[in-house]
Hints:
Structural class: alpha/beta
Number of helices: 15
Helix content: 25-40%
Largest sheet: 6 strands, mixed
Strand order of the largest sheet: 8-9-7-10-11-12
Number of strands: 15
Amino acid sequence: MPLETKKPATRAIIAGLIPEGCGEETLEELVLLAKTAGAEVLAKVTQKRSRKDPAHYFGPGKVREISEMVRSLEANAVIFDDDLTPVQIRNLEDLLGVQIIDRTTLILDIFAQRAKSSEGKIQVELAQLQHLLPRLTGKGVELSREGGGIGTRGPGETKLETDRRHIRRRISHLKRELERIKKNRQLLRSSRKYPVVSLVGYTNAGKSTLMNALTGAGVSANDRLFDTLDTTVRGLELPDGRKVLLSDTVGFIRKLSHEIVEAFKATLEEVKESDLLIVVADASSPSVEEEIATVKKVLEEIRAGDIPSILALNKIDKVGDLSLLQPLSSGENAVEISAIKGTNLDLLLEKICESLPQNRERATLLIPYEYGFLLNEIFENGRITREEYKPEGIEIEGMIDSILLRRLRKYISDRNRP
Length: 418
């Protein structure tokens, strides 16, 4: 049901553990996330300790300190930089008397505000409900749901369901919907005639701006976190005359929970099925190396780590001393660019031409009869030496274009697999 009235702003204290060797600047990203979600940030609280307290996240002294701050600042929420267990949430709610918001709840709230397509909304709501279900305990949660705000709203400014039975039914329904979307996407991917180049990277690295600069697509490109949730695909002609599909995807972020990755599998499948990845990084960010490492970690998690990639160090117009980028830009497949200024985009396009594979590989494919429309493309992009009709489909063998073969790998005959 739609929210009926404008709810009061979340007045939050930001809280997190600081690992050894790190400073409080590690919480700046959480502050930005909280403000993006619409919270007013009143203060930051940190504690240096090697592990979370299993009962309260912080030690007892720090919890008492936060309790005093809550009263003096009239805060109505505490936002934590990590995911919390149901026990930690219940204990903190009892001790602090305010809404407790963990990192994944915060990120998903931003996603709920950003989601535009029906697919995006389904994925966000599924992740929200799966994260919420085991945490439906405690007075704080009940009170926060009456008040509205972060963690209470689903996509399209709807209230999230709080009844356990209804949540389980809704989760089952959303999973069925996502499976249907996944099958439709597979059909669309199978019918593509061109290689796919995907833009991936940390949130707000400038992927959508780069998409616009290369294709003139007119994709929304605002300077804010998670501006793009839905995958956008546009055609691009390369300098060597080849045509590719350029895909702009959801941004990554550190501590991206497994629940979010799982819920967004339908979208992330686009990345997995790419022929080439352009890892876009904000070269002006003081944490650029950590952000690149985060992107690579997520790519490994979704089994896209072995796809050929180019590192595009973006926003060099904001970098005072470009020599500082030398450790990153010295790699064979790295290029320094400014998407907004158009700097070195010609070099990036040359890199794309060089990096896209153009050779053929020997393979045996078993194409189900319902996907017989793929045969024309296979024959046009390969040299077929054997064709045999079997009960389960058409088995063909020969030298096939490697880009096409990557798209068709699920049809590779078991006896032909390495």
